[in-house]
Amino acid sequence: MSPDKPASPDPAPLAGLAAESAAWQGLLEILQDEERALIAGEADRLAQLNTAKLTQLQAVSEHARKRHADLLAAGHAADRAGVDAWLARHGQPEQRARWQRLCALEQEVQAANQRIGSLIELRLSSTRQALNVLVHSATSQGGLYDHAGLAVAARKGTPLTAA
Q: Please, which residues bridge with residue 145 across strands?
């Protein structure tokens, strides 16, 4: 190989960027579904989405571990600067575009995760407030249920089902 020609790219890391990007895209789609479920109040969907999210996170992690190993094997740091140096050495514009897309996907995933965290905190805050109202009512009014387990009116102490 002459010094004037750039080194031919190693196909494994290049294919790895495409697969890693696909994994990040899949994670983003799951997070978007989770966000929609939280907004719509569809709590039953969250368990199913959590399972899918965990599986996708494992896939993303495995791709990142492989990328880090490939970078180290190529003599580069296992970070963004290492990828940039590796891409500069190989000079493949389509791979630079894939790397930029992967970085953009990572930022989109982080932003979606932030929004989901805010939505969960909002739901938790609302639930805490409702529980505080119930606890206060139960302790200050002598309870919300009589000894038979029937709901009672807070002020009169009579069952709500009584005529």
A: 151
The secondary structure of 74-91 as a DSSP string is TT--SSHHHHHHHHHHHT
* Contact between residue 25 and residue 105 where contact means Cβ atoms under 8 Å apart: yes
Nearest to 71 by CA among 89, 83, 87: 83
Averages of pLDDT over runs of 10 residues in the chain (163 residues) are: 46 73 97 96 92 97 92 87 84 85 96 96 88 74 64 58 57
The pTM of the full predicted model, rounded to 2 decimals, is: 0.73
Q: 151: helix, coil or strand?
A: strand
Which pair of tokens denotes residue 163?
Answer: 């005529």
- What single letter denotes the amino acid at residue 21? S
Could you count the other beta carbons within 10 Å of the beta carbon of residue 40? 9
Domains by residue range for the chain, with CATH = 11-124 (1.20.58.300)
Contact 134, 143 (CB under 8 A): no
